[in-house]
């Protein structure tokens, strides 16, 4: 069995159309299979927010020359104004959350279709990073998904697909990044720690802690208490990857592995590149709790045990 944490570099042009997005994800999956061959069972974990820029897919020509993410969002609001006003009144929410409702069905359909097809085509278990969506009526068979908006909430949600392309799990982020994901930013809703689940996979019991969640002890305890073997932390870090930031990330998966010996492996796929003026940096990693003399470290830190693979 093989484990893969995807170090992805994104650009808004990757979301120009559903086909362009599928080509982007497909090219990454091809690299995975070139490395593993086709005889191995493989689990592939994508970074946080990999599906979020699908908001722009049907409006790419209108936003492609925007200088800032804020300008691009304003353009989307203007383009979808009648629907957004409806959702603002219907659910008594702000402009950003209403925009998420207005684009939610199209975003979800592309995201689900692409990752389901990738899982089936490449015979891979996929943790498909995350995407900002309402809590639709998810179904194992994605063609039976119900796209009725149930309430006024939008979540940062991770999705798990088996190698037959079935949707086998979803996980909501429970701790939001201040001024980015809360009311000061994307105006998301936080999931509940008590709703966190662990999923049976060929690789063991899999738990997902979306980015900041992995730094929070209640989340780690909840996943450990349910018998998690394999911890996945899809991440998108919008800070400069300097020495101080690297030291801070040692408090995430690395600390969780040291605290909780029930986790055998941990994968931390990270997003890199800029979405308009919002830029992301980091080093994806795979960690292990099994005895090893291998030592690695983030680029400005001393090498240590626990890492078994680390992006440059």
Topology (elements, then pairings):
Blueprint (H helix, E strand, L loop, with lengths): L1 E4 L2 E2 L8 H19 L5 E4 L14 H4 L5 H11 L1 H11 L3 H27 L2 E10 L21 E7 L5 E6 L25 E4 L2 E5 L8 H9 L4 E3 L10 H7 L3 H7 L5 E4 L2 E5 L2 E3 L4 E4 L18 E4 L2
Parallel strand pairs: 1-3, 2-11, 3-4, 8-9, 9-10
Antiparallel strand pairs: 4-5, 5-6, 7-8, 10-13, 11-12, 13-14
Helix pairs in contact: 1-5, 4-5
Structural class: alpha/beta
Helicity, as a percent range: 25-40%
Order of helices and strands: EEHEHHHHEEEEEHEHHEEEEE
What about the largest sheet? 6 strands, mixed
Strand content: 15-25%
What distance lies between the first and last C-alpha atoms, to the nearest angstrom? 23 Å
Gyration radius, to the nearest Å? 19 Å
Shape designation: globular
Low-pLDDT windows of residues: none
What count of helical segments does DSSP give?
8
